[in-house]
Structure formats: structure tokens, C-alpha cells
Amino acid sequence: MERRGYAVCAARLGQLCLGGALSEPAVREAALRAGLLESEGIVVMPGQRERALGIATRAGLHDDASAVYLPETLRFVSRLLEVAPFVISVAVAGSLASGGFTITDDVDLNLVVEDGFRHQAYVVLNVLGLTHALRHRRKPVDDLTRRPLAPRLMTANLVLERSDWFPLVRQDADMAFELLVQQPVFGEEFLESAIAANPELLEHFPQLAARSSRWHVEPGRRLPRRLYPRALEHPARWIGLAGWRYMMWTRRHRPEALRRVELVRRTMRPYALFDR
After folding, report:
1. Are 28 and 153 members of one domain?
2. How far is it, in rounded angstroms, from Cα 249 to Cα 236?
């Protein structure tokens, strides 16, 4: 809850335990010994009891909201794969993957791309995301998803290149947890081999070795790679940076939104897109 902003029920918490999964009774016993509380059906720390109702209410809205936006997300990913042939893997992350998605949320995507295409992937995703959002201008928004022209809907949460994985610089528990809660929808075989090549991740969460995908995308015909020469990567970086700065400028009077952006960037470093 302190690091990610949400809490889960005892059964789900057992699936996410550091060091390996635990049964629901074992989680309840350990929680009791640690002084944790079960409130509104979720496990929380004593000082967070007042937040339990809000978190549980949000989780209760997930099924209805995700039923609308998950099919939209899978169609968007399929289109992204068709126009961006350098994308190796896509996973749904954030609240849509973790179980707390509401109609005001955006959809976070984690991408793996071929070396030399990181910024092109970011630009392509955002161009597609803008055209997609223009068709959903009436979508409810909050401080994180409000934009001048159209709502923020499809977002690049993390973009890694193939070589970033061999080895992965970040093999700490926070990065392992990010990989555990994301839901791969394309390129599952690559992610399995990449995680196996970074054994420290499995030391934190051995569940990563046995996970199975709930959703899957089969792209249509993909564009030829030659349409994206590596020479475009440098200008793509400047285009992406300009878009990023514009987005931050639109949030300049919304401190909660800025804090959330910085939290995500801090969690993803050294892989935050414009830190390199």
C-alpha cells in the first residue's frame, strides 16, 4: 500500500508474497502476528484503516470498468503491433492489471522493443494513443488523465530494449514486483526467457517462473521494419521529449498529478524514458 497505493484481499496477497506464494490461512496468520488488519475485505496496516473503504470501493468497480476498456486495450495493442514491427513484447500494467481499474483511469502498457527503437516506439504509441483518445472525448477523467484535446487513455509505462534484459540492471524486489503484476498480452515467450536470464528476479518472486497469461493478442499483418530506419531514433527522441514536456506543462497546477508522475518515474529508474 505504501509503495503502490493499493491493498488486496488475503487470498490475492498470498499470491504476491515476497519469496513465494502463501495460502490464504497462512497470510491471515502472518498478518495477525505482524499487527496488520483485515478491513473491508482487504489487508491493511493499522494506520491505513481509514483508506480501506476507498480502496475496496475502487476494487469493486474494477470488473465493470475493465469489461469496457480491456477489449479496447487489446484492440489497441493489436493495432500497435501492426504499425510498429519492432515491438517484441507488450504487457498490460497499472490498475487494469492489478485489479483496481476505474472508468477515469488510463491504461498503462509495458513494452520491449528491438535495440535502437525505444523512442520511435514511444512516439508511435502516443500518436496511436491520441487518435484513439479523440474517439473517446467523453470518457470521464481525473487529474491524472485530463488533457486539453482528449483524455489520457493509452500510456507507455515502461519501454525497454532487448539488450536491456541481458542482464537487467534492476533485479531488485520492486522491479520483480512490477513484472509479477503486469499481464503479458504479446511476446510471452520472450519475457519468460528474459526473466529466466535474470535469476535474482526469481529469488524475490519465484511465482514469476510459473505465471500464465490471462489475455493474448494476435496481430494482423505487420508493416515492414524498413519503414523505420534507425536514423529516425534521434528525431523521435526530441519529438517524444517535446510531447512529454507539454504533458507536464498541462499538469503544472495539479500537484497530485505531478507527484504521481514522479512516483512512477522513480519506480522505473534507470529506465524512465527521458532520464537516459
Report:
1. no
2. 20
Are 112 and 203 in the same domain?
yes
For residues 89 and 103, give the distance between their C-alpha atoms in angstroms, rounded to a whole number. 26
Count of structural domains within the chain: 2
Q: What residues make up the domain containing 158?
A: 62-275
Residues 55-83: pLDDT tens digits?
A: 888 888 899 999 999 999 999 999 999 99
From the CB of residue 252, how many other CB atoms can be counted at a distance below 10 Å? 9
Separation of alpha carbons 202 and 211, rounded Å: 12
- Of 45, 60, 75, which residue is a domain's last? 60
User: Could you read off the pLDDT of 197-245 as tens digits, one per residue?
Assistant: 999 999 999 999 988 888 999 999 999 999 999 999 999 999 999 988 8
Looking up cell 473517446 gives: 136
Would you tell me the crossing angle of helices 62-83 and 49-60 to the nearest 10 degrees?
A: 60
Closest C-alpha among 101, 122, 85, 120 to residue 231: 120
Q: Residue 249 CA to chain centroid, in angstroms?
A: 23
